[in-house]
Predict the structure.
Amino acid sequence: MQKSDFFSKRLLWVTGKGGVGKTTVAISLALLAAESGKRVLLIEVSPTSRISRFLGIPEIVYKEREILPDIFALNIDPRYAVEEYMKLQLKFRFLYNRVLKNKLFRIFATALPGLDDLTTAGKIWYMENLKRKDGSPLFDLVIVDAPATGHCFNLLRVPRATIETVKFGPIKNQTQPIQDLFTDPERTLVNIVALPEEMPASETLEFAEKVRSLSIPLGVVFINGVYPEVDEERFMVLSQKLANEGMEDVVEILSSIEKKGTMQKKYVKILEENFAPNVVKIPFLFTPSFTREELIRIATIINVEMSVG
Amino acid sequence: MSYLLDRFIDEKEIIICGGSGGVGKTTTSAAIAIRAAQRGKNVLVLTIDPARRLADALGIKIGNEETEVPLGELGLNAPGTLHAMMLDMKRSFDELIEKISPTREVAERIFSNRLYQNITTAFSGSHEYIAMEKVYDIHRSGRYDLIVLDTPPTRHAIDFLEAPKKMVDFLNAGIINIMLKLYFQTGKIGLKIFRGGIESLFMLVERVTGGEILREVSEFFLSFEGLYDGFKNRSDAVMKLLKSQKSVFLIIMGPQEVNLDEAFFLYDKISEMGLPFGFFIMNRVHLLPEGFKWDRDKKRKLESLIEEDEKFIFDWIEKYISLSKRDREVAMNVISRTKQPLYLVPEFPEDVHDITSLKNFIDNLMSGEILR
C-alpha cells in the first residue's frame, strides 16, 4: 500500500495479539503522520495507559491533550464513555447526575451487554467527526491503539450488531453513522501487528477473515520483530570454525539469534503470501527499551518500507 | 527452578498461571503439566485457546472433553497421566445453569433469553468466571492429583480474580428486578414511591432503547431469581478453594519493562485477596552463556577468525549483551519490589508445535535460573 493512500484515510486501527507491539506501531504511525503535517489524534482503548508509559509522560486521560507536536492523545475508559453517552441522551443536568451516580445504574449498564463497546465505538466516531468552526475536521487523522484482536473485533462489530438488534429508533439512528465510518474504505483501515511466530501469525489470518466478514476494510499487516536473515550454510561453517577455536560461548549467542531468525522465516512467508503487498516488515531492534529515539527509528523504517511497497 | 516448581507440583492440587497475553502462558502451563506427569502425578491442564499445532500435537480436542494425552506413544515416558481440556465457554455456562436450576423448565427459560445468550459470550468476566467454576468442579470430582489452569487471555490480567465476585454482584441485582416488575405492572405512576434516580433511569433507558430491552432484562433477572443462592454458594466455595493452601498462583511475564506494571498490579491483587503466591516466571530471557566474557582478547580473537563481511556478528553480540542486561534489571526490579522469587527462562528460539519441541521446551524451562 502506498504511504499516501494509507495516510489519506481518517481512521486507522492498530490491533494484534497481546504483546506484539501494537502501541509501538501506533505511536510510530502517529509520528509519521504528524511529520507530514497532519494533526493526529491517538486514541488508546486500554485500562492502563501504555502510551504514557512508552513515552514517559503523565497518564493519558479521557480528555485529549497534545503529547507531542501535532499529536493529541486520549484514553477511552468505557465507563466514562457510557456516562458521556447517557449525558448526551439526557438533556436535563439534574437528571443525569441522579442517574449516573446511582449504583444500580452501574449494575444495569453491565446488564446491557455491549453497551461499553458501543459507547467506545461511538466515542471514536465522535472524535473523528469533530469539526472546527469552518466545518473542516478538527483532526486530520485518528489512530486507534486498539485492544487485542478478540476485544477489537467486538468493537468493530458492535455498530452492526446494534443496528441489527434494535432495528429502528434513536439508537439505530445514532449508530448508523458509526457503522458507515467503520465500513468506508475511503476513511477507515484496520491494520494488524503480528510477530512472525505461530500463534500471532495464525491469529492474524483468522482475524483478517473475520474483519472481512464485517465488510470492514483491511489495511496493512505489520510484521514486527523480524530477526536478521543469515545464510544458513555459511553460518554453520562459521560456527564450526569458532567452536574449534574454543569460542563455544560466542557460538551459543549467535546460534540463538540465527535459530530464531530461521524459525521466523516460515511465518514471515505465510504472512507475506496472505497479505502482500500490504505488508510492512519491522526488524527486531535488539534494543533494551523503547524510548522516543527507537520509536522514531521504527517510524523511519515504516516510512521507507511503505514508500517502496 | 526445578526444586521450586517440583515442590509445588508435589504439594499443591491447583496451579494457576496468570499474566497478560503473549507471554507464553499456554506453553508454560502445558510444560508444567507434563513435568507433573513425569513426577508421577495424574494431572489435568485446562486451557482456553492453545496454539493449534500444539493442541494437535497433544491431541487436544475443542470442547469440554478431558482428553488423555498418550504420553507413552508420543515418546515421553512418565509414570503419571496427562489429560488436557479446552474450555468451551458456552457449554460450560449451560452446564452450570443446568446444575443449579431447580427444574428443567427454569433452565430452558434462561437458555432462550437473549440476554443470557449475550452474557455467556459478551459479559466481561464470564470467561474467567467459568474457568474458575470449572476448576472447582473438576477439583471436587477428585479425578486428578493436580490441575494446571492456563488463565484466559483477558483485557486485564486481574479480571479473572474479580470474576466470581463480579458475577455474583451482577446477579444480585434482584432489586432492579423488583423495580422493573413494578414499572411494568403499575406504569410510571407507581414509581412515585421511588424518589431519586430510578424512575428517571428507566425513563431514560426506555426512551433510548424502547421498552424491549427493559422487558428482557426483567425476564432475565426473574429467571435467575431462584438461582442466585446457587451461584453465590458456588462462587464462595471457588474463592475458598483458591485461597487455601491447596492452590498456588504463578505469574508469567515477559522481560520488557512495559510488562512490569501489569505484573505488579496482578501481584498486588493476589496479595490483597490473600491468595497463595508461588513465584514469577519470566519467559524469553536473553541469558548469556555461563561465565561469558566480552573482553578485548576475545574481541581480537573473534576478529581474526571472521571475514570482513561477517563483522555484523560483533553487533549481534553486543546487542544481545545489552538485552540480557535489560532483562536482568527488569527481573531485579520485580524481586526488590515484591520480595518473591523469580525464575528466568531462557529465550527458546523454536516453535513449540510437536512433542520433540515441547520436550526441548521443558528442558529449557527446567534449565533456567532462579533469582530471589
